[in-house]
Amino acid sequence: MARQLTLSVSLPDMASFDNFYPSGNEELVTALRHFAATVGTPPTVMHIFGASGCGKTHLMYAGLKLTRGEGQPAHYLPMREPGVDSSAMEQIDGFGLVCVDDIDVLAGQAEAERALFRLYERVQDRFGHLVTTARQAARRLGLGLPDLVSRLHSGGTYHVSPLTDADKRNALRLRAAGRGITLSDDVLDYVLRRYPRDTHALFGLLDRIDQASLTAQRRVTIPFLQQLDRH
Amino acid sequence: MSNSTIWNKCLNHLEDELTPQQFNTWIRPLQAVEDTATLRLLAPNRFVMDWVKQKFMGRVDKLVSDYSQQNITVRLEIGTNTPVEIAERAPVEKKTETIISTYGTKSLNGAFNFENHVEGKSNQLARAAAIQVGENPGKAYNPLFIYGGVGLGKTHLMQAAGNLIVSRNPSASVAYVHSERFVADMVRALQRNAINEFKRYYRSLDALLIDDIQFFSGKNHSQEEFFHTFNTLTEGRRQIVITSDRFPKEITGVQERLISRFGSGLTVSIDPPELETRVAILSNKANKEGVEMDDEVAFFIARQVRSNVRELEGALHRIVASSRFTGRAIDIQLAKDALKDLMVFQERKVTIENIQKTVAAYYKMRLADLHSKRRNRQIARPRQIAMALAKEFTNLSLPDIGDAFGGRDHTTVLHACRKVEELLQNDAKTKEDYQNLQNLLGR
Predict the structure, then answer these.
(1) Which one is the CATH code of A2-159: 3.30.70.890, 3.40.50.2300, 2.170.16.10, 3.40.50.300?
(2) Which of B178, B181, B308 sits opposite A150 (nearest CB)?
(3) Residue B341 and residue A159: Cβ atoms within 8 Å?
(4) How far is A7 from chain B (nearest CA, A)?
(5) pTM for this structure?
(6) What is the 3-class SS of chain A, one letter each residue?
(7) Digit-coded pLDDT (tens) for B82-99
């Protein structure tokens, strides 16, 4: 049941540790790589927090991929997604790495908090690893179940630093290079001047550029972007 | 060369190759069975078997082939060899295999024992009681009810008692179960029409360790079943250990008859560890991780993380990971850097004004009373507590603290701090209030 659920949430092929621009988050990346690759060893949990768009979900995907590559089960539960609720946590079985994204949304919902608590206990019993993400450290989420808060703080708690504008430029370039697209300095200047600079928007734009340049079989230039805007 | 000789050589090789944790968890429990063309390895349960198949089988095959110099097939199966060997190698795994497959209760965790439990004032009594129970199950205190806040080591003591029971009597059937799991298993047993099996299982145990009983709140069916299990076990002089986050009579949503039974044995509390115990816990855990840590650093961390042992452990994990990542030795600066994300909220702005507001609200009094000259006990005692908290949580000098309380002399502050210290030793109510206020300010 849980495997079906996991598979129903498709992971973007592009998200990996290699195309995550670390920008001050190197220690977190190393820790998460290690955590995903050593399922079965303590500690049980890792909590990653940071503002929206700083790359938490990307990192989770990367961790899931790594664990799966090792032949271990990997489960992803995006709690903010419609239709994913606490009952999904109950369905998880065959533990390896379990990633629960955006646990902020569980705060204040007694049953959902208890479901996450039970999931933690099951993951621990079966020597799995649990990664949780939120916008704040567990203690600041307003969770009503102290047993859950202390458990979420029992492993490593890591903050993801947001990208500066210079980092966004490098991150875009890295992500584009991973898709075989070369973005010149002029193009990057143009993108960062003309488009919203939150990472969701920027990487979404990259998806559009990628598809359009493939279809048109053209290099990515400023005129090409201008044309893209007109469509 | 016999198969067991080959396997022993493989074991030596793998012990060097793998981390102690990997080796002890996955490889050591495997038992080789003598056969001719096949090396049969018995895993104590499916979980171990699957894991070894996935992670280590290729390596095992290669080593067997290297050492035997011939084509020996390695077969991995679930099973046990001789009882003696099982008892020596993995008594817990063997014992709990059925438990996992039947009800999901987990094995006793061998990592929880009395040797690695750090004793302090805050847990002295609970520890002594747990040892007694481990040595004389069903006789010493039945049930043993341990209560205290989250992450203070209740589960550790409970499991240590269970491990002690098993070490003294390897044939004892001891089960650890979280109360949420007990409820879930019971529901499942009802759905599968297997409730009699469920009852039989729990009622046939020699010792039942049930964690966080407050989660039974509102679960009437489970309470009913647990009531009968409780009676059967205690009547048969079999041990029950219960933990909770609060005193039995304060548990809400649980039947009165159960509450009275919870309190019919010995009830002991675990308090938050004092600074010195937190330091000892940190040093102990650092030692276990093979990490060197100066007392100075341990004191620094223990001052930052006051809430509970579990979070202390989390802080240590973070610092060790950071030290390994940066290649830096663990010193105060590294600890500060590693914990900066956590300290953003640990280093809450505890100002003297904040303390005064919190104390006034806690005692339901006016803020102005704390600054006033009034000296009746209802006002003077909270004022003294607020002064002691100000000394603990801020870096203000005693004269500054005195000034903030209506221009009092620093000797008054000193007297207040001493008085509170004395009350913390001798007066349970003041102690409870003080801890609650510490927690409120610690948030």
Answers:
(1) 3.40.50.300
(2) B308
(3) yes
(4) 21
(5) 0.66
(6) CHHHHHHHCCCCCCCCCCCCCCCCCHHHHHHHHHHHHCCCCCCCEEEEECCCCCCHHHHHHHHHHHHHHCCCCEEEEECCCCCCCHHHHHHCCCCCEEEEECHHHHCCCHHHHHHHHHHHHHHHHCCCEEEEEECCCHHHCCCCCHHHHHHHCCCEEEECCCCCHHHHHHHHHHHHHHCCCCCCHHHHHHHHHHCCCCHHHHHHHHHHHHHHHHHHCCCCCHHHHHHHHHC
(7) 332 222 222 223 333 333
